[in-house]
Amino acid sequence: MARWQPDALGRLQQAALTLYGERGFDNTTVAEIAESAGLTKRTFFRYFADKREVLFYGAEELEELFTSEVAAAPESATPLDAVAAALDVVAAGFEERRELAARRQQIIIANPELQERELIKLAKLARAVAGALRDRGVADPAAILTAEAAIAVFRVAFERWVDPANRKGFQRLIRESLKELRAVTAA
Amino acid sequence: MARWQPDALGRLQQAALTLYGERGFDNTTVAEIAESAGLTKRTFFRYFADKREVLFYGAEELEELFTSEVAAAPESATPLDAVAAALDVVAAGFEERRELAARRQQIIIANPELQERELIKLAKLARAVAGALRDRGVADPAAILTAEAAIAVFRVAFERWVDPANRKGFQRLIRESLKELRAVTAA
What we know:
homodimer; 187 residues; mainly alpha; Tetracycline Repressor, domain 2; 71% helix; 0% strand
């Protein structure tokens, strides 16, 4: 029987980020991550399929949260208002994790394979958000364009948020970016 | 000395698209493409680094055209007007190649690795367009948001254009999608 291991998930994530940052993603093994967290490889694989997935853990929950918030927006909300409301909730959930998010971002920027993976995850998220908008009765191409715009806002705000010089909250940067998007697309 | 081979590039592209469509991308070799085009492998490698690159040939020219058109927009043009003008020129250049574009799209949709490659190329294009906007004095996040929006419009219009049921031109679909983007982001 597996022993109870308090916060094994968090310890593995922290150990992985530290090792990826110090040695590089490619030069770190699962065995080293597990050892550094004081856990076994077996425990590692209970949480993650491979060492790459440590960096993308939670993508499904993010998608679930995002789409359910789009679904929950008032019936009267425009497509962009619905995704704006969802972005607001999503951003609030990230707020405490800035330091981890910034370290993760550095690791991803340093590795083309991880950047590709990030693009794929975001494209999947955009498709899911477009699906949630269609479920609200939004037709295409409005649904997919709104979803793509929302993901662009998310990504731009995220990069600003994790910038070492930044002192603003993620939610605030999301709102600013959304406002900026409205400004640049104003006819 | 290499013999002169009329339209070797076009013949290789046609042969590759046909074989990828018939056998699947993974089950086609460079030797088979060359043979089917009546050319040698050596001629193939004069144009393409590998069999994947046949599908992405011209990405650099697209980027060059897109960014130079953004640069050429009147000084008074807003960021979105500048990318709209560029999209118009880009779309016109695609117009004659719908059949090839549609076949290419089917092959890419069928293969996750090719989809990833497509995402990476489009992300690179977005960064280049953002750079061209910055060169016009557009600040961030407006530059990157406008560029991301432009690429979303491009992609959405492209997918509509290559749809077998579609009868509209690419340029017209680009304009419609851009109008739709303005509509969904109107405050």
